[in-house]
Amino acid sequence: MALNPQFGIFLDPTAGDPREPFRLAKLADESGLDLLTIQDHPYQPRFYETWTLMTALAMATERIHVSANVGNLPLRPPAMLAKQAATLDVLTGGRVEVGLGAGAFWDAIVAFGGPRRTPAEAYDAFEDALHILRGMWDNSGKAFTYEGSIYKVRGARPGPAPAHRIRIWTGAHGPRMLRLTGRMADGLFISMPYVPPETLPSINAQIDQGAREAGRSPEEIRRGYNLSGVIRPGAGSTSYPTQQGALDGTAAYWADQIVRFYQEYRQDTFIFWGGGDVAGQIELFAREVMPAVKERVGVTVA
User: Is residue 31 part of a domain?
Assistant: First the structure.
């Protein structure tokens, strides 16, 4: 059985008016969206630092969950990331989720003091991190040890414990990472501009294989889809010509596409990644697209 759909936003961390991200976060929170996510590129001079921004926004909202989409592991040691996430989870009453990526822009990572990893090393580091995150959260107040090939934790005493079981999302690409997601993680974030719908069945198959190998139900793993584009006012399911990997149309058109992604491609978490009048776009997504999708897939709309 498919998980009930979730909805969220992809908030741009570009530095500017410091009041703007708070305005957008509060709008998303008050509009009933489930997730507020922020990309994490610490080496990008135009961006605020993601965990600092995410913490500030989490403390300024009341119900929405927050997550990186996705976190830069090479610049964020997993034991400390576990501590950060647990602390913020306690302070927010259980509203933190952890998105994690293995790293990509290695020149920029090295410039910030991080390692340069081969694909094999990046995979090993990522698997280590998943073990350490869950191990630290599950062993609060006890001595925790993990001997990985990249990361090692030797007798650390984690704490405080998170307020809830923190969901781990991966930004995974490639069969091995997708199978690892199925074995050890709770969800996957991928982006429509880079991962078109026709590739989703093969991605799902790799996640399912990993889950079954670990004795898990594939239906436990959430499938997150970052959707870029424009929501236009107007009636009917009208679409407009657009660049590949983006949606451009009325709220009814967006609802049609999301229902298709949910029913045909098993995606269940939809993150809106819009531009232009961002506040107006978030309102259209939350107040018109989200309830239309929920009604059509049989979810009670509050």
Answer: yes
Average pLDDT for the chain: 96
Banded model confidence at residue 301, pLDDT cuts 50, 70, 90 = low
Domain count, the chain: 1
User: What is the mean predicted confidence (pLDDT) over 97-110?
Assistant: 97
255 within domain boundaries: yes
Percent of the chain clearing pLDDT 90 (strictly above): 92
Which residues form the domain of 122?
Answer: 6-296
| Structure confidence at residue 140 as a pLDDT band (50, 70, 90) | very high
Please check whether residue 301 lies inside any domain of the structure.
no
Residue 154 lies in a domain: yes
Q: CA distances (Å), 98 to each of 36, 60, 66, 67, 162, in order?
A: 12, 19, 8, 5, 12
CATH number for the domain spanning 143: value is: 3.20.20.30
Report phi then psi at 44, rounded to 5.
-85, 110
3-state secondary structure 54-112: HHHHHHHCCCCEEEECCEEHHHCCHHHHHHHHHHHHHHCCCCECEEEECCCCHHHHHHC
